[in-house]
Amino acid sequence: MNMIHKRLIGLITDFGLRGWHYVTAMKAVIIGINPKARIIDIHHHITPYSIIEASFIIKTGYKLYPHNSIFVIVVDPGVGSSRKIIALKTKSNHYFIGPDNGIFSVALKKNEIKECVAVQNEEFYHKPVSNTFHGRDIMAPVGAYLSKGISLFKFGEEFEPKNLITYPITYEVFPNNKTIICTIQYVDNFGNVVTNIPIKNDNIEGTKLKLNKNSLMTLIIDKNEYQGNFQSQYKNSTLNQLIFIKGSSNYLEISMNQESAAKKFNLHTGDTVKIKL
């Protein structure tokens, strides 16, 4: 058996429970092209239209999947417009298909991208092509044909990664007063709030700012200030206490022990807050 036909195809959408039939339609198209494809549901509850959230899911998880895995991302508020659909390959040999709306500029560093094309070859589309469902009619079939070993360059012309649309996401570090202005990337089911502050070896990545256990930190929302401690584990804090913690994705999280920090401070994906160390 040709193992290339069994490559994994991961789906990421904002369709939600009421849109599950859209997910199954994409799967039907994929299986119709490659019955041996392995399809995995990565996330279908992305906040509608949230490029930041979709990018977070991609960048914190894709390297866990086997080389040659294919990811189809359908978070596409510009469907039917002149925005391009991109297919690309990273240096780690992972493939992505999705709209050029800023998702890739946030999720991937440009030096991570090895090959990139703008999808244009209608030979590989599911027809007729709907103006409102490119996930089913363009992205899913391109992913399926990729899983059968079709070359990336069969789908369209080469596209320079530097020309990918960028998406504004705030991240500013002020070392002198130990303050960071950051963006909320994700809120999980427990109300933990994931910022875009990267942590490496207990330092704010790329700086000399160190996070010491039990050190006092301040969350500033508008003109309101809330103090908490940096902790390595939830159990080190009391119930309902504000804490700052290094999450499993190596980003700083705003959390509370057995309470939703997101509800407590009314925080959502895309919000901007200030944190003082």
Radius of gyration: 20 Å
CATH homologous superfamily of the largest domain - what is it?
S-adenosyl-l-methionine hydroxide adenosyltransferase, N-terminal
The CATH class of the largest domain is identified as Alpha Beta
Outline the low-pLDDT stretches. none
Number of strands: 16
Q: Give the N-terminus to C-terminus distance in angstroms.
A: 56 Å
Let me know the largest β-sheet. 7 strands, mixed
> Helices and strands: which structural class?
alpha+beta
Number of helices: 5
What features would you describe in this structure?
With 277 residues, the chain is an alpha+beta fold. It folds into 2 domains: 161 residues, S-adenosyl-l-methionine hydroxide adenosyltransferase, N-terminal (Rossmann fold); 105 residues, Elongation Factor Tu (Ef-tu), domain 3. 18% of the residues lie in helices and 32% in strands. The chain contains 5 helices and 16 strands. A 7-stranded mixed beta sheet has the order 2-1-3-5-4-6-7, covered by helices on one side. A hairpin with a 2-residue loop joins strand 12 and strand 13. Helix 1 runs parallel beside helix 4. The longest helix is centred in the first third of the chain and has 14 residues. 37% of the residues are buried. The model has no long low-confidence stretch (mean pLDDT 95).
